[in-house]
Amino acid sequence: MRRLSDNARGAVLMMVSMAAFTANDALIKRAGADLPLMQIIATRGVVASLALAALAWATGAFRARVSARDAGLVAFRSAAEVGAAWFYLTALLQMPLANVMALLQTLPLTVTLAAALVFGEPVGWRRWSAIGLGFLGMLLIVRPGTEGFDAYTTYALIAVGFVTARDLVVRRMSAELPAILVTLAASVAVTVFAALLSLGERWEPFTPASGAMVLGAAALVSLAYLLSVLVMRTGEVGAIAPFRYTGLVWALLLGWFVFGDWPQALTLAGAALIAGSGVFTLARERRLRRRTATPAGRPIG
Fold this sequence. Notes:
Elements: H1 6-31, H2 37-58, H3 68-94, H4 97-104, H5 107-119, H6 125-142, H7 151-170, H8 179-198, H9 208-232, H10 237-240, H11 246-259, H12 265-288
Helix pairs in contact: 1-3, 1-9, 1-11, 2-8, 2-9, 3-7, 3-8, 4-11, 5-6, 5-7, 5-12, 6-12
């Protein structure tokens, strides 16, 4: 068998990363039936943060010099991560897994839109059209004014807003800043936030099943972020980023097998519009701006 190209290896890493992220979400959703959300996030966060710190140590990331400007951007990004994680996971416990994941896939579109509005980055009519179609897909999923549209749908959309702000900040960070340090800072921030909020909750005892689910989620999210770091160092991000949409496939499968949820036809149509528009936008940006990599991120959820 011929050796895989860098882009092919990056695509495989991205697909495995999205599978780990989605399986982590499924475990959190399942554990949320027995445990308070903040207890889950705080416990998982301690394990994941320790794993990320070990990775940062092993890669020598702690020896990097971080400028005051980058430190401020990391702090802002970590705050955005806290907001994204809280709104995303709160929505996740109440909504079908595939619906929440589909809304999160609008990220490449919202980042492109926000970059045009905030930073004045040029966007041609093709990408504007793709953004419009993507948002039409979002409306097919949330269907405002119907029974399915509730506060938790709004929470999922707010989470997308926080992740968009987070990824815009990443564009302003120095290229020399290790990605693992940025991820570790966000993980610690989310963990501390959850631990403080959990003080106002009654912690439930872990059963063997719930403990295994939380530890499994911690292992999966640690693996997912490790793979995300490797993705950023393998091949062209613009070529690899579209494979993040494989998360939708995993969400559909896990939602069906684990929770018995299968989206309605309109939701599936909306997800297809979002995925198609996002892939086109990423491919277009790759052609027009090969020297700029769009982060393929998601909340610490």
